[in-house]
Amino acid sequence: MSSLTSDAFEAGRVYKSTGAIAVNLLRSPIYHAWERSHLQGSNPYALQAEKLSSLDTERLLEQHSSLINAARTYGRILSQAAGSERHAVMLSDRNAVVLDVVGDEQTVHGPEPFPGPGSLLSESVAGANGIGTPLAAADYVEIVAAEHFIEGFHAFTCQGIPLRNDKQEIIGVFSISLRRADAGQRLKEILKCASNGIEAEFVIAKLEQDVRRILAAHPEDYQPIEELRQDIIQAHQAARLKMEVGSRMVAKNRLDYAMQILRQADNSIQIFRRRAEVWRNLASLELGSIQPVCLTDSIRDLVDLLSTEISIRKLEVVTSWQEEPIKVMADSRSLLRQLFRYFLQVFEIAGRGGRVEVLVSMLDAEFVQVSFRGNSGLNLDQSKLAQYTFSLPIANKNLCTSTL
Description:
Heat Shock Protein 90; 3 domains
């Protein structure tokens, strides 16, 4: 028994004997979790979680079907990474009620009770645990063996992480429980990467809603916006494939290689999220207020968003402006749409293998000029060269923060 486990076991003995929580025997996040569990009346002698009725569970699963579907692939990936370890991957809603469980047959469906769909795992009911505690702490938490508040969970080491929607609201928890405490460390990174993947699925679902709205309101803008959305989604699918490979490597204990792949996957997910945010601003039908906007960051974001199209057309895209980023007064979404249309126009002029230049220059102390130039690359004949120019009022001289 490790010192961590023995200290927690002793803390449990003291608590059951005296009702006092031994702060010196528990890690800080576990101490606070026990404190919350105590104040909410959790029973430390409980051997298993309480459950909703079958009918209420069925209704809950139907209500959260989109969350369950978004997480299912990542639950399988995480379970695959656990390999032959006794384990269970769990998904809960924002109230710590279990929605889905996947794992080895003996753990999930064996003779010993394990929380299934409909189980209540809030700290008030089940004490400190891998679902209720990450929810209460609003952060990743690991709970080792006897650090669980109730006796029935002492056989497991659990790691859990909250899931957030596009508004950063917590909508559930993704968690894994393992029989061996040391097995959890090699799964920590893939748990976090998989949770990011689940959140990216929420973003994809929102993009699909946005596309339907655009098609209904502005069908003329649909095709280029939809093509960009497909590029973004393909990038996320590539990240998910990396996770699949990484999970196999973790299961085979090839951890160094697995960590490299998982870092690549997580980086791809972060790029996806950034591009998706730019896409949503681009596709928005709403108008905002005139305020300082970083023009040069907006141009960089669009070049990044259009990288697949640029590659397909074999274009050379060159951007040019002074060293300092430039802020202008504009509605950020309208500006992004204006820049996007100019990009598409010069792409057509430049043609396959052409050159596109975007120049930002100061007209005077109050205005900045943006010029788009497209050259076919075949010759310097003016008939093959097009230029679009517009100007914008300059904002204050505070530097922009580059997003790429």
